[in-house]
Amino acid sequence: MTDDKELRTRRRAVWRAAERSLWRRPTDQTIGERLAGLTAGVGEVSDPGAFPDWYGDGVVEELERRVAGLLGLPAAAFFPTGTMAQQVALRCWAERTGSRTVALHPMAHPELHERGAFGAVSGLRTVHPTTEPRLPTADEVRDFEEPFGALMLELPLRDAGFVLPSWEELAAVTEAARERDAVVHFDGARLWECPPHFGRPLHEIAALADSVYVSFYKSLGGLSGAALAGPESLVAEARAWRHRYGGLLFQQFPAALAALVGLERELPKLPSYTAAAKVVAAAMADAFRESPAPWFRVHPGIPHTHQFLVWLPYPSEVLMAASLAQSEETGTTLFHFWSEESRVPGISASEVTVAEAGLEWTAEDVKEAVAEFMTRVVREDAAHEAG
């Protein structure tokens, strides 16, 4: 554990010191820096002279109204975590539909990253209309052999490569669910990033669903927290369950203010990040083709959001060592983390995020960085094989 902590500390120090990066992670900032940034933004989004919230009033209510307005939905409730928000939402829908079965993708966040919370905590059962690395089609939903009360769609589907369907496909799949008398819930942790791909504003996207969850830290750089938006009756019931689940905190103003700052500052920039990600992904693909890598994949080839995946046929420890050495020795951070691809032995994957820091990069900058990175990979791989 000590070695892991020391390694995390070293990585943060290296990434903070890098002169160039595609993305500056909020978690690499110090407590003082985060507090200073929050204090500097408060005046843009709220009254600094107002009193802090008390069990969800004040600035928390401001945030809830803002989210409901952006999504074009009647009401919204703030939650400390998205895990809790979605558990509550689908529990409430189960009472209304009479079915505790939720259809979702096996790569969706609740299935991979929440320790079976749907079943263990809320008594929900999950089924999978498809196992393909994409969201289900209308036919797969319409023809699925088991009944379900709710269809949950993660937009974008992160673990498949931050992928999205087309607008026509999304509209068709929601209609197919309703043909089966099922409600539609959007796991919109990153919904803020979706308008450029769909060519539709947030409220039109949200209108396809019966309820929507959004996160405040994944795209917006907030401290924590989430919101559940939907019909007033659903949100009112969700507030009651939020209390029962332990989510009605005494004060939440730092998280609420950080969310409002993110909506004010980061939300308008997300389309530019997506445009930059397309340039970066194309340049990476060109550079890997000219590199000694025996195989690679940049997915999606044209990113749907400002995030995408890169796969390379090397052990994760080799790629991590090369990435960290590049950051430390050249001042350029191209990749942060690599992990073994569980479905394909010998392949490792990295999530690439392009945000404000990445807007400065040209295609040539990316190609040069990839070439330099691959030189290090070849050297590290040879040492790994020898050792």
TrEMBL record:
Keyword Lipid metabolism applies: no
Keyword tags: Pyridoxal phosphate
The protein's required cofactors: pyridoxal 5'-phosphate
GO CC, alphabetical: cytosol
Source superkingdom: Bacteria
Cross-referenced Gene3D superfamilies: Aspartate Aminotransferase, domain 1, Type I PLP-dependent aspartate aminotransferase-like (Major domain)
Annotated InterPro entries: ArAA_b-elim_lyase/Thr_aldolase, PyrdxlP-dep_Trfase, PyrdxlP-dep_Trfase_major, PyrdxlP-dep_Trfase_small
Gene Ontology molecular function: L-allo-threonine aldolase activity
Domain Aromatic amino acid beta-eliminating lyase/threonine aldolase positions: 56-286
Example GO biological process: L-threonine catabolic process
Similarity annotation: Belongs to the threonine aldolase family.
UniProt name for this protein: Threonine aldolase
Source organism of this protein record: Streptomyces qinzhouensis
